[in-house]
Design a protein that fits this description.
Largest sheet: 8 strands, mixed
Distance between the termini: 23 Å
CATH class of the largest domain: Alpha Beta
Number of helices: 17
Radius of gyration: 21 Å
Helix content: 25-40%
Number of strands: 16
Structural class: alpha/beta
CATH topology of the largest domain: TIM Barrel
Bound molecules: N-(iminomethyl)-L-glutamic acid, fe (iii) ion
CATH superfamily of the largest domain: Metal-dependent hydrolases
CATH architecture of the largest domain: Alpha-Beta Barrel
Number of domains: 2
Length: about 450
Amino acid sequence: MKLELLFTFCMRISNLIKVKQMKGNIIIKNASQLVTCSGFGAKHGSAMSDLHVIDDGAVVIENGIITAVGRTEKLLDRFNEAGFETIDATGKAVLPGFIDSHTHFVFGGYRVEEFSWRLSGEDYMEIMKRGGGIAATVRATRGASREELIESGSKRLDSMLSFGVTTVEGKSGYGLDDETEIKQLEVMGELDSLHPVDIVRTFLGAHAVPEDFQGREDKFIDYMTDDIMPQVANRSLAEFCDVFCEKGVFSIEQSRRLLIKAKELGFKLKIHADEIFPLGGTELAAELGAVSADHLLHASDRGINELSKEGIVATLLPGTAFSLKESYARGRYIIDQGCAVALATDFNPGSCFTESIPLIFVLTTLYMGITIEEAVTALTINGAAAIDRADKIGSIDVGKTGDVIILEFPSYKFIPYHIGVSCVEKVIKNGNLVFDKENKIGS
Ligand code: NIG
Ligand code: FE
């Protein structure tokens, strides 16, 4: 790295350290809408519609934790504004920070050519089968240094933060060997301690079959369960374990074997389920008591019913369906069956190269039959539930972490209406202002 670049990088990191360590005291008052999304667990079915909005609302954050929520007039009687940073949110809506509960944001290289191939009609899975797709990102990620991954990862987190994301889930899965899988997870750990955005880590070693294991998929699963997963568990490098359960990748039987071992090792479970072919990953998620089942483009009625019964979060990723030109998951039906739906970007270099929350909102509301209120729930409290954090984040409730966003408009309804453009003006993380569009903080 050139000296100048290194200096800029160190400055950036030292700024971030400062932000991450502080736990702030802040009062946000006069919000035209305080959209609390109040709750401490996943919201199922019709409960997703109630955002618990307080008109002319205020929120008090002390030492990074929310200590009071209510109407401004009532609340300010109880608090002396001296000692607090105060933000006047007159004419603006205030919401919990968004939770992007499914991403693959740490990777080397890009797959810009692949996008053009797909534009000219080539199929995502066919590209993968001939050594492109995920395999191409595996080669680039194996070749990338930790510093390079931290630098690109940090820039991506900056961008997510500007969209109002305060917690992100990140998966490994571009190593497929112990060295690189662990490198990816360690990089996410470092980014978590350096960057204002919090990171929840997922081990996705079974993301594709590497070249040296082609035709020996069961041996690869053995390698995962007997070699890498125990290392990841012993060093607490990931909280969740995920698998790409898909026709031509890992079968139901292989996925089941891997996830049962993961559970024994103490991981919580996620599954890339029924994304491209209706294989039955949704039912498997229910059978194993996963925290979430993700994608669900081809989930069966029975699978959806089982998710609802077992209280498993259905994580829908409309950006991926859009980018792959596939039909969207049956969002309306899934909510009507009583499921708790979360929405996420699936940010990755192949099937969905976007961290744009406004894009997710507009696709969901225009094409999946999901209302704006349900979409807000899906990106806040239900996103938190998808990473098992609904008791700590995802709503503006007393006792929760002080992660709050302020829009430049008076209503949350502007989010999808302003098509593809971010309405987020300010982001408060742990009670600190970490992004401000007007004053160019954090950008
Ligand atoms: O969620 N389906 C598998 N994994 C990602 C895509 C990863 C990639 O193409 O690099 C997904 O779509
Ligand atoms: Fe994914």
